[in-house]
Design brief:
Distance between the termini: 11 Å
Strand content: 25-35%
Order of helices and strands: EEEHEEEEHEEEHHEHEHEHEHEHEHEHE
Radius of gyration: 20 Å
CATH architecture of the largest domain: Alpha-Beta Complex
CATH topology of the largest domain: Quinone Oxidoreductase, Chain A, domain 1
Number of helices: 11
Structural class: alpha/beta
Length: 343
């Protein structure tokens, strides 16, 4: 099968396009013929090498994907050849104390398609049956591949962690990323007011076209003053910051008393300057979050089926042009999801 993979960790030059053996589904697994796969910043981190995570080489990138079930392994009961599915990238053991509580993303052996095991940048991928969910009929293959990881991550942060309510104000740091755009779509569907930041005037315009209530240029750095001005000195109820070191202190300063700071990543570094006094004096809450549960994925998927949510596809590349697609992602030129058309 054709695939995008690397044989050693490193820069963009280690990426290869070539042939690898078609995998076989084991017990409880399905083999999916991939129609489309989507890029995530995680793919760049995996290519560079993540401390503590050892992958079998050559390693196929890609966590998001949608396609058609080709064959099933022993014990598979709910899926059959020909079923159209979208993949939930998060894999859990189903047996540990956290899984038994329904907190699958806290599983002691939690791992991701494309991060720990072979991914979706290929003509075929193997996944557990429980991770292959019916594809929403109204979505194209590109759209179906574009939402799982980022929308699930944003859903858990906003709905489960922050318990976001209609009328509250959310500030999204660095709009244009997959998680940022997903959060904007979910927040507007839930009835929130949304402010966004970006260093790109074009991205701010595009965010407003998707429903953002205001945009802030964060290039000067001190965006919290503008947030305070817009909100009448009050601040926002929720901040979603996956940027990390470069924006963390300003994100804290943007929160209203009793506000909530959500984080699922740190693209500019994991060790920011902290403001502990503001956190305890204003009684702020910081929520860390990774992916989501099967129940959260099902709830989110229902909104896609009903047409209440839709992904934003930035661009589509053929699988053979994955290097170009990854370069666009690494240079932060995208708004929404970059997708690979596989078949």
């Amino acid at each position: 099968m054709k695939a995008i993979f690397f044989r050693r960790h490193g820069g963009p030059d280690v990426i290869e396009y070539g042939d690898l053996p078609v995998p076989s589904p084991g017990p409880g697994q399905v083999l999916v013929r991939v129609k489309a796969a989507a890029l995530n910043h995680l793919d760049i981190f995996v290519r560079r090498g993540i401390p503590g995570i050892i992958v079998a080489l050559p390693h196929i990138l890609g966590s998001d994907g949608a396609g058609v079930v080709e064959s099933v392994g022993p014990g598979v009961t709910c899926l059959k050849s020909g079923d159209e599915v979208v993949l939930n990238p998060g894999i859990d053991c189903g047996k540990c104390e956290f899984c038994l509580k329904g907190e699958h993303s806290l599983c002691v052996s939690f791992h991701l398609i494309g991060e720990h095991i072979a991914g979706t940048y290929a003509e075929y991928v193997v996944a557990p049956e429980i991770n292959a969910c019916p594809k929403p009929a109204g979505l194209s293959w590109e759209e179906a591949a574009a939402f799982p990881l980022t929308f699930l991550t944003a859903w858990r942060m906003l709905v489960t962690k922050a318990c976001a309510k209609p009328g509250e104000t959310l500030l999204i740091i660095g709009i244009g990323s997959g998680v940022g755009v997903a959060a904007l779509r979910i927040a507007k569907a839930l009835g929130l007011n949304v402010l966004v930041t970006s260093g790109s005037a074009e991205k701010l315009v595009r965010a407003k076209a998707l429903g953002a209530d205001g945009g802030i240029d964060h290039s000067p750095g001190a965006f919290s003053r503008e947030v305070r001005r817009i909100t009448g000195k009050r601040g926002v109820d929720i901040v979603l910051d996956s940027v990390g070191k470069a924006t963390w202190k300003e994100s804290i300063a943007s929160l209203a008393r009793g506000g909530k700071l959500l984080t699922c990543g740190a693209t500019t570094g994991p060790n920011p300057e902290e403001d502990i006094a503001r956190i305890f004096w204003n009684q702020l809450t910081v929520y860390g979050s990774t992916m989501g549960t099967h129940a959260e994925f099902a709830d989110m998927l229902g909104m896609f089926r009903d047409g209440r949510l839709s992904p934003v596809v930035d661009s589509v590349f053929p699988l053979a042009k994955a290097k170009e697609a990854l370069a666009r992602l690494e240079e932060k030129r995208q708004f929404g999801k970059i997708v690979l058309r596989v078949d």
